[in-house]
Amino acid sequence: EKWPRGDEKEWRSALRGLDTDVGSITKSVVHHVQTSLARQPHNLDDLGAYQAAALSVRDNLILNWNETQLQYTRKAPKRAYYLSLEFLMGRTLDNALLNLGLKDEYKDGIKRLGFSIEDILEQERDAALGNGGLGRLAACYLDSSASQELPLWGYGLRYKYGIFQQLISPEGNQLEAPDPWLEHQNPWELPRLDVVYDVRFYGQAERLDGKGRAQWTGGQEVLAIAYDVMIPGYGTQTTNNLRLWESRPKRGFDLNSFNAGNYEGAVESSNSAEAITSVLYPNDHTTFGKELRLKQQYFWTAASLADILRRFKNLDKPITEFPEYAAIQLNDTHPTLAIPELMRVLIDEEELDWNTAWGIVTNTFFYTNHTVLPEALEKWPVPLIEHVLPRHMQIIYDIVSLRSFFLTRTLSDASSSRTSVERKFPHDRERLARMSLIEEGQPKQVRMAHLACIGSRKVNGVAELHSDLVRTTILKDFVEFEGISKFGNVTNGITPRRWLDQCNPELSALISKTLKLDKTVWLKDLTKLEGLLPFTEDKAFCKEWAAIKQRNKERLAHHVELTLGLKVNTNALFDVQIKRLHEYKRQTLNILGVIHRYLTLKNMTPAKRKKVVNRVVFFAGKAAPAYYIAKLTIRLIVNVARIINADPDTKDHLTLYFLPDYSVSLAEVLIPASNISQHISTAGTEASGTSNMKFCLNGGLLLGTVDGANIEIAEEVGESNVFFFGHLTPAVEDLRFQHLYHPVPLEQKCPALAHVLNQVSAGLFGDGHVYEPLLNTVRQGDYYLLSDDFDSYIAALGMVDEAYSDSEEWVKKSIRTTAKMGKFSSDRAINEYAESYWNIEKVPVTK
Ligand code: NTF
Predict the structure, then answer these.
(1) Does one domain contain both 249 and 370?
(2) How high is the pLDDT of residue 1?
(3) Secondary element (H or E) of residue 341
(4) Do 369 and 474 reside in the same domain of the chain?
(5) For the chain, N or C: smaller number of CB within 10 Å?
(6) Mean pLDDT over residues 795-812, rounded?
(7) What is the enclosing helix (H) or strand (E) of 70?
(8) Of the candidates 648, 645, 640, 669, the residue with the CA atom closest to the CA atom of residue 563
(9) Which Gene Ontology BP terms does the record give (predicted)?
């Protein structure tokens, strides 16, 4: 095709890049104020200035995005696709400025226009399309893929409402309010009204022949519309894409019903179509089995696969080469329906035979498991799938036995080289039942982890211990059936751009100065931080290091004063636990430890109290709206805070804050301010954890159990620089058995904990009855082993105090910790996926 149309000179002179000197930047911002926003300088507020600045930055991103996508199309490399129901992006403006290397220029330009960059950055609402670690990990991986110049796209849903806003009632209860993040226009997305796919639900599936083919008709059809979010790499022109789908009704509304005076009926179909992407499910580590959630999962995987296939088809290659051009990563089991969906397309639409199709599927997908907690393992009732996705239910049954012969296979059939579980393990019926994709029961349920596992090329966990647990517990039978080499580990990582340079600019600058390296170098090779080690002996450096931590504590105190109106004592150790509220994460252990400390302080003479290390404890985190015990823990924290913060005997020595509405942006203020952070899950329950890495990268020490990535952090920084406590994973099962069959009264087993519980019951923090259900989880059964770990937890807190008293040595520990965090860059993790899983290569994009 001829290019350009029209006058080539006109095109060439118009097609230049954007100037990024301060003068051009102010012009571009003002241009957007005048045109895109249709506003005037005299009535421009901070929000307007933010929007104009964002639109101006966006222009730069769009040009890089265009160039990157053109290169990808021209070079036609193998691409990776990251399917995640959650992307917890946080704010974009600051990150975009830093990745583009334009922060200083914009700061100046904005200042010239009479605004401060700090103030306008605060105007942006978080994009909070995720619950916690799983969604934030996806966001870090997008940043790293672009920074490492890897051709990767994310696919997710454009929820109208992200994770709920958390409010705390006067009684201390969590209340939920909607998160209207799209209320003002979102400058970071590009609607692609021309990228549209039909997605079907319900209807009938009729088998056509003996080869597994079928026809799926009827039911409801909805439209999936693409919205693209630009993902800029750090110090590179590469700008990847996050494509989010929005659901819309296929037929606006039914004009006939409208004319017949049935207005509600007329909009009904449009309402039910739009409902699909209306809200993020706020559950973390639990499944609800709701039809709308299943529709979300199918809607998103069907649209994403159609889009990926369309891109592949533009290459004009035989369909059998699909796995050479596309690797699809399943972020947990949420997108597992992509496996039967690709089978459906290949068989029913592309008319491939079953074996060829199954070969393509099992070379395309990769599955990451993010939890071994039983309540988080997805299962869908067979009748529900049959109703919503009748064709997919047929395919799942065909995979089990009729065609993929995963489980069973008749002796007469020798057409496939694959063996079945039955052939490999003859006469082992229990094994067949354990491994089936269908769990027997009322109703029968589809086990999504099993489907994800057998439908994928490789499977991985997210930290060494977790990957071992996956191999030896939930997927043990599959390791025995398919061989260990399919089951790997990729330890999680975090992006040092957001989680050091952006959230802790002073520390970032000190590191660059000390290493005598431009930050663009060490932020992309984080192992360079090791160069800080010799400086533990440099007094001036240590002093500067400590001063920055102190200023970050003051910044947090300032934030608490602005938002809650409370004054925080910054001359105390800052102790932080921020994460989703969950019994396995044991915020309850922490708050009971705080109460223990309070009671101990109360019993001391004022003179003795003065010798204790002063401590300020911060909690933040949301509880799933239906998670009663987690909500009760919040209530207890809030009410303990109310009492002890007002106690004149102790308040100089111990205070406690629950910061409402935890978010990525709040984490960016909390993490750089912490001296110690708590990662205290029952051993074997936290798959990895990623905030542990963020705290350590910012020079905060870690207090934790021997669990998840804590173990690998300790391996890197040395056990003398972390505070470990509690029982180890192999002991957990036995201890639970003891609790059930040989219970020992708590008074006998752990008197200190019994005393704390009794004080809560007795009403020290308000009506004790309110907390009985929470206290009973410890008194009876104690599934998460608080009573087994309490004494060693208290001892570990004591060791933290002792270490903190030696402030010089503490600073050294802090420096050593940061220095050894290189391994935990998400760049390392994404490169492992690229090389050992997806087999994709860098595609440099040059100006
Ligand atoms: C979470 N899993 C794990 O609980 C965390 O330990 C881990 O750091 C993150 O994933 C990221 O890998 C989940 O949220 C889920 F959904 F699997 F339960």
Answers:
(1) yes
(2) 58
(3) helix 338-344
(4) yes
(5) N
(6) 98
(7) helix 46-75
(8) 669
(9) glycogen catabolic process
Q: Mutation test of ligand 1: which of 131, 134, 284, 495 has the most ligand atoms closer than 8 Å to its C-beta?
A: 134
Ligand 1 atom index nearest CA of 137: 11
The ipTM is 0.99
Cβ(687) – ligand 1 distance below 6 Å = yes
At a CB cut-off of 8 Å and minimum separation 6, what does 843 contact?
71, 72, 75, 77, 149, 150, 151, 238
How would you list the strands of the sheet with 438-439, edge to edge?
379-381, 445-447, 438-439
Active-site residue numbers? Answer: 370, 579-580, 585, 690, 694
SS3 state at 366: strand
Do 414 and 559 belong together in one domain? no
* Interacting residues of 101 by C-beta distance below 8 A, sequence separation 6+: 235, 520
pLDDT digits (tens, 9 = 90+) for 289-333: 899 999 999 999 999 999 999 999 999 999 999 999 999 999 999
Q: 465 in ligand 1 pocket by Cβ < 6 Å?
A: no
Q: How far, in Å, are 64, 599, 732 from residue 654 at the CA level? A: 51, 11, 32
Please report whether residue 437 resides in a domain. Answer: yes
- Does a structural domain hold residue 784? yes
Domain boundary pick from 471, 492, 513: 492
Q: What's the pLDDT score for residue 252?
A: 62
- The pLDDT of residue 562 is 96
Q: What is the pLDDT of residue 209?
A: 81
Same domain, 488 and 553: no
Whether the CB-CB separation of 595 and 760 falls below 8 Å is answered with: yes
Atom of ligand 1 at shortest distance to CA of 332? Answer: 17
Alpha-carbon gap, residue 534 to 547, rounded angstroms: 19
CA of residue 675 to ligand 1 center, whole Å: 25
Q: Are 72 and 151 in contact (CB under 8 A)?
A: yes
In this structure, the residue with its CA closest to atom 16 of ligand 1 is 285
Rounded Cα distance between 94 and 230, Å, is: 14
Over 80: is that where the pLDDT of 259 sits?
no
Angle at CA of residue 47, ends 41 and 48, nearest 5°: 35
User: Does residue 459 sit within a domain?
Assistant: yes
Indicate the average pLDDT of the chain. Answer: 96
Residues 93 and 234 in one domain: yes
1-5, 119-123, 425-429, 590-594: segment of lowest average pLDDT: 1-5
Q: Looking at residue 500, what DSSP letter applies? A: I
Mean local confidence (pLDDT), 326-353? 98
Query: How far apart are the two ends of the chain, measured CA to CA in Å?
Result: 24
Q: Please tell me whether residues 574 and 473 are part of one structural domain.
A: no
Query: Can you tell me the distance from the alpha carbon of 41 to that of 56, in angstroms, rounded to the nearest whole number?
Result: 16
Query: Is pLDDT of 615 > 60?
Result: yes
**Is the C-beta atom of 690 inside 6 A of ligand 1?**
yes
How do strand 445-447 and strand 573-578 relate by DSSP bridges?
unpaired
| Count of CB atoms situated within 10 Å of the CB of 783 | 16
Q: Is the peptide bond before 390 cis (omega within 30 degrees of 0)?
A: no
Say which CATH number the domain at 146 has.
3.40.50.2000
Q: Both 272 and 394 in a single domain?
A: yes
pTM above 0.95, yes or no: yes
Which residue range is the domain that position 446 belongs to? 67-492
Same domain, 260 and 399: yes
Query: What pLDDT sits at residue 418?
Result: 74
Find out whether the peptide bond into 443 is cis, omega within 30 degrees of 0. yes
Closest-lying ligand 1 atom to the alpha carbon of residue 369: 17
Report pLDDT digits (tens) over 628-660: 999 999 999 999 999 999 999 999 999 999 999
> For residue 204, what are its two tokens?
């009938």
Q: How many domains, in total, are found in the chain? A: 2
Q: Are 552 and 510 in contact (CB under 8 A)?
A: no
Alpha helices in 603-663 (DSSP H): 606-609, 628-644
Residue 119, domain member (yes or no)? yes
Report which protein residue has its CA nearest ligand 1's atom 14.
Answer: 134
Contact 760, 771 (CB under 8 A): yes
689 lines ligand 1 (CB under 6 A): yes
Average pLDDT in the 358-372 region?
98
